């Protein structure tokens, strides 16, 4: 059989450790395993159907990225949420996303229409925090898709995984969505008017408002007493 060169594409094989890392990260963003909990390697290995070697490699990768902690003799633990980390993450994302928008060419009418559609999808997902969080992420990704600085965009993506851990926990526990729909509309109005600078300032404010919702809840969580563990009664 003969295939035209233009029809042949290389088969991309994703290393097992990369796929395991992706699944673990997606689970942590959903709160499973929960912040502060330990990782049972044997159980996880059986659940994912992989050997301990790629699992260990994936776990060590997540340690390096700041999602897990490795304790000698005790194993791996999901890092707890902290007020300090949230206070650091959100201003950085506000600065980096606004920089990316300022570095982007003006969006076309088609691109603005796409952003409007994504924002409408976000507005329709008020009762589903997980879908709403994905819709909000898609909106921001589309907004910055024309930024030519790929290293800047990659830095934003990496840091946003950490922010998503906080936002999903907030939405899961409070039952409240951090609604950005109105803020997105204001950004779109500025873009339609050709005012990139105003849109960038509004985008920066979008992150600061999210932080204002999140930090009081985080401080309350930090101040709350730990749950009391009941001792098991011994059988006579």
From TrEMBL:
Record-linked CDD domains? WHTH_GntR
The scientific name of the source species is Eiseniibacteriota bacterium
Name this polypeptide is given: GntR family transcriptional regulator
Signal peptide range equals: none
Q: Known InterPro entries for this protein?
A: GntR_C, TF_FadR/GntR_C, Tscrpt_reg_HTH_GntR, WH-like_DNA-bd_sf, WH_DNA-bd_sf
Q: Could you tell me which residue ranges the HTH gntR-type domain spans?
A: 14-81
Name the keywords, alphabetized.
DNA-binding, Transcription, Transcription regulation
UniProt cross-references to Pfam families, sorted A to Z: FCD, GntR
Q: Does the keyword Transcription regulation apply?
A: yes
One GO term in the molecular function aspect is: DNA-binding transcription factor activity
């Amino acid at each position: 059989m003969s295939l035209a060169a233009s029809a042949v594409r290389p088969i991309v094989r994703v290393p097992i450790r990369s796929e395991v890392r992706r699944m673990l990260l997606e689970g942590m963003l959903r709160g499973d395993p929960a912040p502060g909990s330990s990782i049972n390697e044997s159980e996880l290995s059986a659940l994912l159907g992989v050997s301990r070697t790629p699992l260990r490699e994936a776990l060590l990768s997540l340690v390096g990225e700041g999602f897990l902690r490795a304790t000698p003799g005790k194993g791996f633990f999901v890092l707890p949420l902290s007020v300090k980390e949230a206070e650091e993450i959100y201003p950085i994302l506000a600065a980096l996303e606004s920089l990316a928008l300022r570095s982007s060419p003006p969006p076309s009418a088609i691109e603005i229409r796409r952003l409007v559609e994504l924002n409408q999808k976000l507005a329709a997902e008020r009762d589903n925090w997980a879908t709403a969080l994905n819709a909000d992420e898609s909106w921001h990704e589309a907004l910055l898709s024309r930024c030519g600085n790929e290293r800047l965009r990659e830095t934003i993506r990496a840091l946003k995984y950490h922010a998503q851990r906080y936002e999903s926990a907030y939405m899961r526990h409070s039952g409240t969505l951090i609604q950005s729909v109105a803020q997105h509309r204001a950004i779109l109005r500025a873009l339609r008017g050709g005012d990139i600078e105003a849109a960038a300032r509004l985008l920066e404010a979008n992150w600061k408002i999210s932080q204002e919702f999140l930090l009081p809840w985080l401080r309350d969580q930090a101040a709350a007493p730990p749950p009391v563990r009941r001792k098991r009664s011994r059988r006579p």
